[in-house]
Design brief:
Structural class of chain B: alpha+beta
Shape of chain B: elongated
Number of helices of chain A: 9
CATH architecture of the largest domain in chain A: Orthogonal Bundle
Largest sheet of chain A: 5 strands, antiparallel
InterPro entries (chain A): CBASS_pafABC_assoc_protein (IPR051534), PafC-like (IPR028349), PafC_HTH (IPR043839), WCX_dom (IPR057727), WYL_dom (IPR026881)
Protein name (chain B): WYL domain-containing protein
Number of helices of chain B: 13
Strand content of chain B: 15-25%
Domain WCX (chain B): 267-336
Domain WYL (chain B): 169-232
Radius of gyration of chain B: 30 Å
Radius of gyration of chain A: 28 Å
Largest interface: A-B, 134 and 127 residues
Order of helices and strands of chain A: HEHHEEHHEHEEEEEEHEEHEH
Protein name (chain A): WYL domain-containing protein
Strand order of the largest sheet of chain A: 8-7-6-5-9
Strand order of the largest sheet of chain B: 8-7-6-5-9
Number of domains of chain A: 4
Shape of chain A: elongated
Oligomer: heterodimer
């Protein structure tokens, strides 16, 4: 809980400055301004009367609340300058500056928003002074397709339906669909979460896979759906999805970095045995082909077979054209 | 029940901020109830720092008080408090947090700028930086940041999140911040075993949702980029300063982009089945119809193209160059024989 105590201390220091200026402030308003729940605020207000510039001096803060309003009966207990706003710590400046700069890199962001971010960043850098120095040692880029982003953003704010031509890597196909956009989410790549009118279900579309987009005149009317917490990742396999087992050599360890999985067990050769779940195992044929001699699908057998057939069919095109010299491998592929 | 840490830290902060003259460790110990409760009133005589080897019944609690006091000061410094250590004429050490060095300079943000920072403050999920971002916003609120605008309202429905899944992120972030050398075990992409690396960490960068570290590799005596997900085990700090000079501009993304095959140094000619391979078409620099359901495409050729083309199975046939063609055939054979 050490981190919490630090966060709470930081918050209470700002709180005394804030409350000093606002006698009779409402609990709900203060909680909103501080981005905390009223309960968290009340627990801060329970601690503050036990604090002062000197316990022995009997100058504890007389801060009290009836659950609605907050009263500070002896604001003089802190000298006017003891309650002044505090400078930003290096981590605080870094956290805010890096995030603001990252959001400003989003291609397609409204110009007004980007300019506001840049102005705020510049002012913050100045106010933070040398505390801002370390913020250049951390940087984040969000990827997005600017034109698509701008259209989705506009459709959301004007509440209009979108038509998209969307590429599905799993099937290597483009499909057309109408969607009612709900929100834009950036986690490395940028996605639009929407109600898909073709499947009548909630779907997430990666913006760089949108081949074409049109804003329609029809109003967007997504059903009221509870928003999922997508911060942990967009791919959240369901427990009932079929299981796929992949074994990779050292050269295929990247699979564990790119595919959310249930387990990844070390193999004696430095490889991994990875168990993952997907609603559509056939979509992993691409992975089986890509792995080559760096790994193979252990199960389901159908998937192994379909990858092998695809490879054989592809080879036929080369072998049919010309008799080429043998570039046979050394047979180290773990089979 | 022991007095909560937040109460103890808050009292220490207010004492240090409220005083005009340096307060000795003894005075602080006697003024703050949490210290009195945990360690009793301090010994009668003033103690200099580092004199804990004195014998006597109070030595144990004296040591633990000193340790707690040092930790508490470090915690307050993490919150941004500048605490000065001053020695008086008697050689007694005193502490204070001067107003001048702790005051936030005036900053005026309009409603749009406030909304922008409100959005930025929600971007981190990583506990330490999420806490720091809210803390920064609260300090700005206390300084008068406008609060009547809901950032989500004004920014449409936009939710940027910075993903941090790697345990090595926080120690490396702190090491970059404080310019401390580190040592960690690192497994290269294709290596069977991890290897120990001694690194002077310069900067961290997140690209396409993955974190990378750029720094000076002491054993290789060269700049290197590491992917955080390949760091195994703990990141440990090393004593001492950086030996190599930190460059003004550290470029992580260019290095990583070349690993990812983003940098092309030529073009390749492929045959692609109609209707298939949209991403290849999107990248093509030239295309023509061949008839019988096939197109011919000229696409950028960089590292990793062979692995990507194989994914399309029988829908792609490489025509040129011969080297790429051989790589693709080699990969296909490995799968065909499995």
């Amino acid at each position: 809980m050490a981190a919490n105590a630090i966060d709470q201390t930081r918050r209470m220091l700002s709180l005394v400055t804030y409350l000093r200026e606002r006698p009779g402030a409402r609990v709900a308003d203060v909680a909103r301004a501080f981005g905390i729940t009223p309960d968290e605020l009340i627990s801060d207000l329970d601690v503050l009367p036990l604090c002062g510039t000197s316990f022995r001096g009997g100058d504890l803060l007389d801060i009290d609340t009836d659950g609605d309003r907050i009263w500070w009966r002896n604001p003089g207990a802190l000298g006017a300058d003891t309650a002044e706003p505090l400078r930003l710590a290096a981590d605080e400046a870094t956290a805010l500056l890096v995030a603001a700069r990252a959001v400003a890199t989003l291609p397609g962001l409204r110009e007004g928003d980007r300019l506001a971010l840049l102005r705020a960043t510049a002012k913050l850098e100045e106010a933070a002074g040398e505390a801002a120095g370390a913020s250049s040692r951390l940087s984040v880029t969000f990827e997005s397709e600017g034109g698509v982003f701008a259209d989705v953003d506009r459709a959301i704010s004007e509440r209009r339906r979108l038509w998209i031509r969307y590429y599905s890597p799993a099937r290597d196909q483009l499909s057309e669909r109408e969607i009612d956009p709900i929100r834009l989410v950036s986690v490395g790549h940028t996605y639009v979460e929407a109600w898909c009118r073709r499947s009548e279900a909630r779907r997430t579309f990666r913006l760089d896979r949108v081949a074409e987009i049109k804003i329609l005149d029809e109003p967007s009317a997504p059903p009221e759906v509870e928003l999922r917490d997508l911060s942990a990742g967009l791919v959240q396999p369901a427990a009932e999805d079929p299981e796929v087992v992949v074994e990779v050599g050292p050269g295929g360890r990247w699979v564990a970095e790119y595919y959310p999985h249930d387990s990844a067990d070390e193999l004696p050769d430095g490889g991994l045995r990875i168990t993952l779940r997907t609603p559509d195992p056939a979509s992993l044929r691409r992975l089986a082909l890509r792995l080559g001699r760096d790994g193979h699908i252990v199960s389901p057998q159908d998937l192994t077979d379909s990858a092998r057939r695809a490879a054989q069919e592809a080879l036929a095109a080369y072998e049919g054209e010309q008799a080429e010299e043998s570039v046979d491998g050394d047979g180290t592929a773990g089979a | 029940m022991a007095i909560a840490k937040a109460e103890r830290l808050m009292n220490l902060a207010l004492c240090l901020l409220g005083t005009r003259r340096p307060l000795s460790k003894r005075e602080l110990r006697e003024s703050i109830e949490a210290y009195v409760e945990a360690f009793g009133p301090g010994p009668g005589a003033p103690f200099g720092p580092g004199r804990s080897a004195l014998s006597g019944p109070s030595t144990g609690s004296e040591d633990s008080f000193n340790r707690m006091f040092e930790r508490d000061k470090d915690d307050l410094r993490e919150l941004g408090l500048v605490i000065e250590t001053v020695e008086n004429l008697d050689g007694e050490v005193g502490y204070l947090a001067r107003r001048d060095s702790n005051r936030l300079p005036p900053i005026t943000l309009d409603a749009e700028e406030a909304a922008a920072l409100g959005l930025a403050a929600k971007v981190w999920q990583q506990a330490r930086l999420a806490g720091a971002a809210s803390g920064a916003l609260q300090k700005l609120r206390a300084a008068g940041l406008p609060e009547d605008v809901d950032p989500y309202e004004s920014h449409g429905a936009l939710e940027p999140h910075i993903p941090v899944h790697e345990a090595s992120f926080e120690p490396l972030m702190l090491a970059c911040r404080d310019r401390r050398p580190v040592v960690f075990d690192y497994r290269k992409a294709t290596a069977a075993r991890p290897e120990q690396r001694q690194v002077e960490p310069w900067a961290l960068e997140c690209w396409r949702g993955h974190w990378y570290l750029a720094g000076w590799d002491r054993d290789r005596e060269a700049e290197r980029v590491f992917r955080l997900s390949r760091i195994t085990g703990k990141v440990r700090s090393r004593a001492g300063k950086f030996r190599a000079e930190v460059p003004d501009v550290v470029t992580v993304r260019e290095t990583v982009a070349s690993w990812a095959g983003e940098r092309a140094d030529g073009t390749a000619l492929i045959r692609l089945r109609k209707g298939a391979g949209y991403p290849l078409r999107a990248k093509a620099v030239a295309a023509r119809e061949l008839g019988e359901g096939w197109d011919e495409l000229e696409i950028p050729y960089g590292h990793g193209l062979d692995a990507w083309l194989v994914e399309f199975g029988p829908d792609v046939v490489v025509l040129e160059p011969a080297e790429l063609r051989a790589d693709v055939v080699d990969r296909l054979r490995a799968v065909a024989k499995a």
